[in-house]
Amino acid sequence: MLHLALAQTSFKRMVSYRAATLAGLVTNFFFGAMRAYIFIALYRGAGKTVVAGYSIEDAVTYTALTQAAIAPLLLFGWWDVMRTIQSGDIASDLTKPIDYYSFWLARDLGRALHDVLARGVPILLAYSLVFDIVWPGSAAAWAGFGVSALLALLISFSWRFVVNVSAFWSTDAFGLGRVAYMSVLLLSGFLVPVAFFPDWLQGLVRLLPFPAMVNTPIELWLGMLTGRELAAALLVQTAWVVGLAALARFAYGRGVARLAVQGG
Amino acid sequence: MSGAWATGPPATGAGDGLESVGAALRRAVSDGRSGAALYVRLAAARTRGQMQYKVSFVLESLATFIGTGLDFVTILVFFTRFDHIGGWTMPEVALLYGLVGVSFALAQFLGAGFEDFEEVIRRGTFDQVLVKPRGAFLQVTGSQFPLRRAGRLLQAGTVLALALWWLEVEWGPGKWAFLGWTVLGGALFFMGLLLLKAAVCFFTVQSVEATNVLTYGGQEMAGYPMHIYGPWLRRAFVFVVPLAFVNYFPAVYLLGKPSPMGDAATYAALAFPLCGVVLLFGIAAWRVGVRHYQSTGS
Predict the structure, then answer these.
(1) What is the C-alpha separation between A112 and A106, in angstroms, rounded?
(2) Which is nearest to A102 in space by CA: A214, A234, A236, A1?
(3) Which residues of A touch B83 (CB under 8 A)?
(4) Domain identity same for B97 and B165
């Protein structure tokens, strides 16, 4: 119940930043419209209807979903844990009788729920006013997407947590983190769908956890995965959820053992 | 970036015949010279400061290089699936991208203090700027010299050079000069936007995230030929914020692409003056902002 309370507080805290939410929405939608027009121009110019399995509507919907995912998945970066490590505030968190990883996870889930409702859904609605976008075709498709999106969020959280706890080892973790977050924008299929990549790059990124963070839920939404493929995709996501959570906890355990907080 | 734009002590004896105009001019020139000297000293000091943290500097530059390079990687991935974008080939799009990228990077180098001006307002440290015997403009310009942004300049410059190489241009000196002129104009344009962004902070205290739509968004958008965008987006960036004049119309002229409206040479000639207007607008907004400054009281 403690975790539920943490998630609720985190949710409420986000609700109070209304101006920031609105500004973020405007920005995300503007960039989204730009990306959609680029795809439309590419398809029309080439006179093609389907490219790499994506129809023109699929491609536009892909830009809508990726823009809607920026806030819930914090794709441009998240530094909260790193800041507490660097400032030494982590000392007070460590005195709390609660598991550190799940403490932050609960807060992140509360925040993410807010961002799905206040940043994700409105983007999709705004898109549907300006562009033709695709919606999941059945209740099963919605359910599949929902599960996949939740797994994606868990993967994203553990990954961000790992990036943050690198601050236990290096005072330059901020620069390192920026390199990491930036690279993931490409590797997750945020900038371009993974299916558009040249084969060698596709082969490479499929070995990494990042497509499971962005690309997989989108392919489910677009109905590109069915039957065994769908099951396999969800299984891969689950494996990454478990693997990255284990890595996050391990890294944190090693890091906190060498923590030195000065002053106080 | 001279002290002439600074909102320093008011000019003395303004409008007192020819002699005072001459005196004012001489003073402006000497202010400009000492201002430039001061800026160089500040920049050198900030460079030494950043070099104390070499690993951090390398990582930050790398992040900037990757971050901006990703836009171009996106373009490259598109061109593995498509032959052209709106009738423009890959080297032509690369030219667009390189032009706007170099312009933006130059503006960010000089205007970093304005880009991150929100902090100054929120912490109330602008009070300290105002009590110093130098113009606010010069001080804010000299407050930052973000070496890591060299990553952006390097990346955009590389793309521009590659584009010119791929295009195998055979230009006379006129077109080469026009190329340099265009890059400079674009830098003025983005400098104007950064000033505008800073000026807004005087009134809102917070930085308005939406102004990033103009700077970063504009930069990214201008990396593609402007005619591919929907009508509302296109009109906004021709008539409201003249982004299309930063690189699109000049590139149409340089490459001899079909002009979407009117005579390409005319639009290309209009580019630099219009970018200058954006800078003047930014300077005017900045001056209004400084005059309306109310400390946050901290």
Answers:
(1) 10
(2) A1
(3) 46
(4) yes
Q: Which residues contact A162 (CB under 8 A, 6 or more apart)?
A: A244, A247, A248, A251
Number of other residues whose CB lies within 10 A of the CB of residue B250: 28
A33 inside 8 A of chain B by CB = yes
Selection from B152, B165, B124 nearest residue B215 by Cα: B152
Whether residue B112 is found in the same domain as residue B58: yes
> What are the 10-residue block averages of pLDDT along chain A, 264 residues in total?
90 87 89 93 89 96 97 94 89 88 95 96 96 93 96 98 92 85 93 95 94 97 92 97 97 87 59
Place of tokens 């491609």: A59
Residue B10 is given by DSSP the state P
Distance from CA of A51 to the nearest CA of B (A): 7
Task: Tell me the residue range of the domain where B32 lies.
Answer: 17-52
**Does B121 lie in the same domain as B74?**
yes
pTM comes to 0.85
- Are residues B227 and B210 both part of a single domain? yes
The number of CA neighbours under 13 Å toward the Cβ of B17 is 1
Contact A175 B59 (CB under 8 A): yes
Indicate whether B187 and B119 sit together in one domain.
Answer: yes
* Residue A230 CA: distances (Å) to CA of A62, A140, A223, B161, B260: 18, 12, 9, 45, 46
How many structural domains compose chain B? 2
